[in-house]
Design a protein that fits this description.
Layout: E1 2-9, H1 29-41, E2 48-57, H2 65-78, E3 81-91, H3 98-106, E4 111-117, H4 121-126, H5 133-145, E5 150-157, H6 164-175, E6 181-186, H7 194-200, H8 209-225, E7 229-232, E8 235-237, H9 244-250, E9 255-258, E10 263-266, E11 269-273, H10 277-285, E12 291-296, H11 299-310, E13 317-318, E14 332-333, E15 338-341, H12 349-359
Parallel strand pairs: 1-2, 1-9, 2-3, 3-4, 4-5, 5-6
Antiparallel strand pairs: 6-8, 7-8, 10-11, 11-12, 13-15, 14-15
Helix pairs in contact: 1-2, 1-10, 2-3, 3-5, 6-8
């Protein structure tokens, strides 16, 4: 049963130097939305009962609020769903204000994920972001005032030049804000990005291993002190604010992914759409599916996924699912017949999970972070 639906909105007003998502600075938004509507038709006969809808990007808040309303209308007319429905929109801080939030809230949007990334000028500059800390704070308060009660923010840590005391300052600002969910990601600058190239050429340096360890420790301990409970490697929530949409990914639930470069998991098949925007539009204009990759997940692969996705979660997986090499015991906890990565070692999660997979005869090294 399909419970989640993701829509990718590939438009941005500028390109961040570390970003390898599919996003364009200029495009025909209207035609793209028409293409999305056509793509929805391909999935209308699937057995679904939606519990979550997520508009990600890109920058979905570059759309007019009425466009968001139209997309949601088409989705909710097209698929059965049950209340309470979690509807998330990703938002960049320099885009929407009270009026726009009020409008999208009236269309059912009840969760906002704000791309704050850093509250410090130093951090925003290092990350090449165009908004200010004030923009982020205003966005959060306007969204809450407009009735969107579940506000999450994204932070990036380990950016070039960041020190432990910078992270502590971020947390100090965060402590004043009534947000209920935080996603904190270590900076990943892929080789094909501007920042990735500078790092590879030695022209830019990310924090040393020692500094990173200090930053990381301040992060998870600080968030805990602020009352956030971690539930996944990069995600913390206050009571009742866990992101059900993302949890569905890690629990291997099926979901429909729509839009250029989107991934989905339907009827035991993982599929990926083309990353080429023109091709995406052209195919849908001709009534063709934009799916470019398809992989039927067999029993063995389902098991692998259960292990590497489940180990991302703080609650971990059933202890009987895997054999554990003795040298990994200090990094793991074994609560109630389960196995989980200890919180202080989650920075090493990719490595730990890879070793567990390898030990269980799953030789192919997975890039585990790509799944969250
Ligand atoms: S706003 Fe987000 S999607 Fe757009 S370029 Fe920056 S990181 Fe990428």
């Amino acid at each position: 049963m399909i419970e989640s639906l993701y829509l990718h909105i590939p438009f941005c007003s500028y390109k961040c130097p570390y970003c390898d998502f599919v996003s364009v600075l200029e495009g025909d938004i209207k035609s793209y939305l028409e293409a999305l509507e056509r793509e929805i038709e391909f999935y209308k006969d699937e057995e679904a009962n939606l519990k979550t809808v997520y508009l990600g990007g890109g920058t979905p808040t570059l759309l007019e609020p009425s466009d968001i309303g139209r997309i949601l209308e088409v989705v909710l007319e097209g698929f059965p769903y049950s209340e309470p429905l979690e509807i998330t929109v990703e938002c960049n801080p320099e885009t929407y204000r009270y009026k726009e939030f009020k409008t999208i809230n009236s269309f059912g949007v009840n969760r906002l994920s704000v791309g704050v990334q850093s509250f410090l000028e130093k951090g925003l500059k290092a990350l090449g972001r165009m908004h200010t800390s004030e923009d982020s704070i205003k966005t959060i308060s306007d969204a809450l005032d407009a009735g969107i009660k579940n506000v999450s923010l994204d932070l990036i840590y380990a950016y070039p030049g960041q020190e432990q005391e910078d992270l502590l300052k971020e947390l100090e600002i965060l402590s004043e804000l009534p947000v209920r969910h935080v996603s904190a990601y270590m900076l990943t600058a892929y080789e094909n990005t501007r920042m990735g190239k500078l790092i590879n050429e030695g022209k830019l340096e990310t924090p040393s291993e020692l500094e990173l360890t200090k930053i990381y420790e301040s992060l998870w301990k600080g968030l805990k002190d602020l009352g956030f409970k971690r539930y996944e490697i990069s995600n913390w929530a206050k009571e009742g604010a866990v992101c059900r949409h993302n949890l569905n990914y890690w629990e291997r639930k099926e979901f429909i992914g729509l839009g250029v470069s989107a991934w989905g998991f339907v009827n035991g098949i993982r599929y990926g759409n083309t990353r080429n925007l023109n091709l995406y539009m052209e195919k849908l204009n001709r009534g063709l599916s934009p799916v470019e990759h398809k992989k039927v997940i067999d029993e063995r692969e389902a098991y692998e996924e259960e292990v590497f996705l489940g180990l991302r979660l703080v609650r971990g997986i059933d202890r009987n699912l895997v054999k554990i090499p003795a040298e990994l015991f200090p990094f793991l906890a074994f609560p109630d017949g389960r196995v989980a990565i200890r919180e202080e070692y989650m920075l090493l999660a990719d490595e730990i999970i890879s070793q567990i997979l390898y030990y269980n005869d799953i030789p192919e090294k997975k890039e585990v972070s790509r799944y969250g």
